[in-house]
Amino acid sequence: MNSGDTVWVLMSAALVLFMTPGLAMFYGGMVRAKGVLAVMMQSFFCIGIITVLWAVYGYTLAFGHDVGGGLMGDFSHVGMRNMTQPIAGFHGLHVAPEAVMIFEMMFAIITAALISGGTVDRMRFGAFIVLIVAWFTLVYLPMCHWVFSPEGWLARRGVLDFAGGTVVEINSGFSALAVVLVLGRRRGWPKEAMPPHSVPLSLLGAGILWFGWFGFNAGSSLGANGVAVSAFVNTQLAAAAGLLAWLLFEVGKERVATTLGAASGAVAGMVAITPCAGYVGPMPALLIGAVAGLACAGAVRVKFRYKYDDSLDVLGVHGVGGVIGMLLLGLFAAKSVNHSGANGLFSGGGVALLGEQALAVLVSIVFCFGVTYVIAKVVDRTIGLRVSPEQEFRGLDLSLHAETAYSTASGGHLGA
Fold first, then answer.
1. Radius of gyration of the chain (CA)
2. Is the whole model's pTM more than 0.85, yes or no?
């Protein structure tokens, strides 16, 4: 083991874990006051349940020795057995397998938590638990093996995804859309205004996400090296470009620049650079972030046309941003940045990489949306996804958790 590489991977794992409370704040500020604890609870619950499932069987199915032609790992690490053995397919690592295990665990946690942003104010907590367990097992683990394990079938084809454009971003965005279509719209949406109850809370959450994303992307180098430095720099550049581009879109479209737009633009830029971070140079990173800021700002408005209630725009930001990053990587990837990568179209590599990236995008969308839709349908037909109209009107904080986020001095509750 190299002590510097090990410290960096462990610090990055902590940074990625910190992103999930940041996501809880980001989401919590954007909902009405009567539902802030419910949406935060879902993020924190994911930390608990995914940690246990990952340790028991998730890690081995994602990173165990391949079985079935690149579709899934074996059971050699069930219950975290044989953790001193090298990770299947990885070469040249200078960190303990257990460090990689805990780092990848944090990715699974935040991907599960992201889905909750589409379903706020109307989903039963028990149904959320069943849904997330089934989704983690049937959707996340196969995707993780296909892309992140060197023995996965998409990785073998040469698909590049540095930190999760498919596994995290496209997966969460299109899985959230599938659940939303089964769950239905919030009562009163879109006619009734449902503004954020605390934009400052969302801005704080976005700041934590920005901070943690350096571990998310730069940590994916799995070492303290030049690729980590490139990924760190590119993350900052893309976030800044996404922020500015989103505000430019708002000013051009609505003649106003919003603080929530600034936060959303930064997140969109970081989503798009996630698959690219360790494979592209700094100027392409700026362009990728800017394209994502503009495209995602437009994408979040599409839901009003087609009337699907993706409440906090998981599809518009994460799904669309992930697609943009994966495809633009096929244009801008350069082996001069990372010799283990490939050259994209603009680096003299032709269209081969772009074709593989497009295949990965298509497969990810179809698989994640399709399987999650079936899971949501089964859960809805058996135990039911939605709360009752009375619970929804009262708010999920009180209805499901017997708590309230805010109390007045006189002892009353803020429920709007």
1. 20
2. yes
